[in-house]
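Data availability (excerpt). The following record was deposited with the supplementary files.
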Amino acid sequence: MRTIIVDDERLARKELNSLLENYPEIEIVDEAINADDAFTKINQHQPDLIFLDIQMPGKSGFELLEQLDKVPHVIFTTAYDEFAIKAFDFNALDYLLKPIQEERLKDSIQKVQALKERRSDAPDDKPITKTLTINDQVFVKDGDKCWFVKLEDIRLFESDGNYIKVYFNNFKPMIHKSLNALDERLDDRSFFRASRKHIINLSWVENIETWFNGGLLVQLRGGEKVEVSRRQAARFKEKMSL
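Predicted structure:
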């Protein structure tokens, strides 16, 4: 797994580097000393995994993740357990408390390997693209709560002023982003712009009804009902093979 270590402390980077020598499956392709440095190097190397410190001068590790369109697997490294654990209670990933213990590091790497294997349907040598596919995961932060979410699990994006409400599982966090900007990034084979306010995940569509003025009413498996505008109805029918 191509890996980047992100930590502002040189000794912390050196210690983790040393510990990772015991794991031949981990290839350290670079190190970063802060969030801005990491942003550049992550986009350059497209790593499978990053070890990420949370508290750093300037931007935090969470702020770095918010900047990324496509998020690699993340193992947090932090000395602030009570804050960090609360912040990503809802993640499927892991964190390591400093000083890092070898057994905990081993457990974390095994978790990430298992996640990577479950995504093996996408070949490792596929071309790098800016389009977010159904197999990609994104980082969602709302207040002090954070989630790593696979796009296939997000059934609906709903515009609310300058924010977007993200529907997945039983959560509906708000992110500061425009629906137009998001629409440009999503794979249109999986996501559909139903109206000015909504983008739906086509795999979550459960029922379709005719609606007013030539529009359609779509019900998702999560229970939400979304109106497809008359302007988009023809495209929607074509995509759904109606």
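Summary of structural features: Residues 210 and 216 are 5 Å apart (CA to CA).
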